Amino acid sequence: MRTILRGGLAGLLAALMTSLLWFVDYGPGNSLHTVARWLMLDSKDAGRQVGFLLLLLLGGLIGLLFGLVIRAWRPTLGGFLGGGIVMGAIGWLVLVLLFGTLVFHGALGFGDMLYTSVPWFVYGLVLGSLTFQLNLRQHLA
User: Fold this and answer.
1) Alpha helices in 25-140 (DSSP H)
2) What is the pLDDT of residues 89-115, one digit of tens each?
3) Residues contacting 29, CB < 8 A, separation 6+
4) Cα distance between residue 14 and residue 102, in whole Å
5) Cβ contact 66:123 at 8 Å
6) Does residue 91 contact residue 123 with C-beta atoms inside 8 Å?
7) Which of 17, 30, 56, 66 is the most buried (most CB within 10 A)?
């Protein structure tokens, strides 16, 4: 249970770091409208805040799933980073590709694919690294 909670905490922290990447790109949070648009929750006035909260919520949920998956793993950095990248790719596939394009009929060109996939892979790397650090600290204590 503690591993799952540590994964959730790492997911929240990784989502916070990733949302900061979305925030500083092209003005003060204008890119967060893209995140809200994936789930059809974008609005002119509150799109940035909704996108920020969505990233935190979805990052925490993906982190909990990652903590559930890695319960039986021995803490090796390569395994956690690889698993984090896989979770980032799954998050991108489900949220951007499945919901953003197939369900809500958004357009996703090659540039948009790169623009949305890179932050998710960064999220996965940060998720794996933070989960490794939290689990390693627990094993050393």
Assistant:
1) 32-38, 47-69, 77-91, 110-140
2) 999 999 888 887 777 776 778 888 888
3) 22, 23, 48, 51, 52
4) 26
5) no
6) yes
7) 66
pLDDT averaged over every residue in the chain: 85
Element (DSSP H or E) covering residue 44: none
Mark residue 29 as left, alpha or beta (left: phi above 0; alpha: psi -120 to 50; beta: remaining): left
* The two structure tokens encoding residue 130: 């933070």
Instruction: Work out the angle at residue 70's Cα, subtended by the Cα atoms of residues 66 and 76, and round it to the nearest 5 degrees.
Output: 115
Taking only the tens place, the pLDDT of each residue in 56-84 is 999 999 999 999 998 887 778 999 999 99
Q: With b meaning 16 or more CB within 10 Å and e meaning fewer, what string describes 26-38?
A: eeebebbbbbbbb
Mention every residue, 6+ apart, whose C-beta is less than 8 A from residue 69: 83, 87
